[in-house]
Design brief:
mainly alpha, globular, 2 strands, 2% strand, 167 residues
Length: 167
């Protein structure tokens, strides 16, 4: 257990909560659609505290080495993480045995949580517009067309609101 990793987790979850709160406070439709899911901020990334992820993440990011074992353990922890946290786009990529992969549409509340997850790093730096450059650099992620449309609509609304606030 490392204090650094614990502090990172606490800070990350706090920033996800700030991003969620900002969207809820600025967009009535987001608040209404998230009302049935009050646990989102509380449960965000809770799997990172479990045995399948905690030590591997801690050693990978804060252990000071990237040995084969550390990297391999982290890869399994990451796989566990994306398969247990539906706010990750990878969760929604279905690998078929005999057919091409299929990208499923993400439910609205997970899209909002995913955006809050991405945006949390902008909240950490205090530069709330960093998310837009990050998204442009990572647009190759596999999203269902309707999910991508929703993501880009919400990001556009956030950008417009931030611009209005800075005027």
């Amino acid at each position: 257990m490392s204090q650094q990793y614990d502090e990172y987790l606490e800070n990350h979850i706090s920033n996800v909560t700030k991003a969620l709160d900002w969207m809820i406070n600025h967009f009535k439709d987001v608040e209404e659609k998230l009302r049935p899911y009050p646990w989102i901020a509380f449960s965000h990334d809770s799997s990172k505290y479990g045995d399948a992820e905690y030590d591997a993440y801690d050693k990978y990011f804060y252990g000071g080495n990237k040995s084969y074992k550390v990297v391999n353990d982290f890869n399994y922890a990451w796989l566990h993480h994306i398969h247990h946290n539906p706010h990750h786009w990878q969760y929604w990529v279905l690998q078929h045995d005999d057919e091409p992969e299929e990208v499923l549409e993400m439910p609205y509340h997970y899209v909002i949580e995913m955006i809050a997850d991405w945006w949390s790093f902008s909240w950490k730096s205090g530069k709330l517009d960093e998310i837009f450059d990050w998204y442009e650099k990572h647009k190759d992620m596999k999203l269902h067309p309707d999910t991508r449309k929703l993501v880009e609509e919400i990001l556009g609304r956030i950008k417009k609101e931030l611009e209005n606030e800075s005027v």
